[in-house]
Design goal:
α2 packs across α3. The protein is mostly helical. The chain starts with a helix and ends with a helix. It has a two-stranded antiparallel sheet. It has one domain.
């Protein structure tokens, strides 16, 4: 193997591991949970609360295909939580 090729492999290896860090997690009551899991739980809880509000003000019947709207809302809230608090 030529020294030039070996140097290129070494640089490629160093570049590919430059973004490796400790996994993003949060301590909850002594246990470490991944942050993405916390964001998904927050997204689902806030979507359930939004659905209750929609039912109370009687606009849930106006929402399009609920099978798409509520999971999309949960993902939107989860991604927004990730970006706002844990970016």
């Amino acid at each position: 193997m030529s020294p030039r090729f070996r140097g290129a492999l070494l640089m490629a290896g160093a570049a590919s591991t430059s973004a490796c860090q400790r996994a993003p997690d949060i301590d909850i009551l002594g246990s470490f949970f991944p942050i993405w899991l916390v964001c998904i739980v927050i997204g689902i809880m806030l979507t359930v609360i939004a659905r209750m509000i929609f039912l109370r003000i009687d606009i849930e019947s106006e929402i399009g295909p609920r099978l798409l709207v509520y999971p999309s809302m949960a993902l939107l809230i989860a991604f927004s939580t990730w970006l706002i608090f844990f970016r």
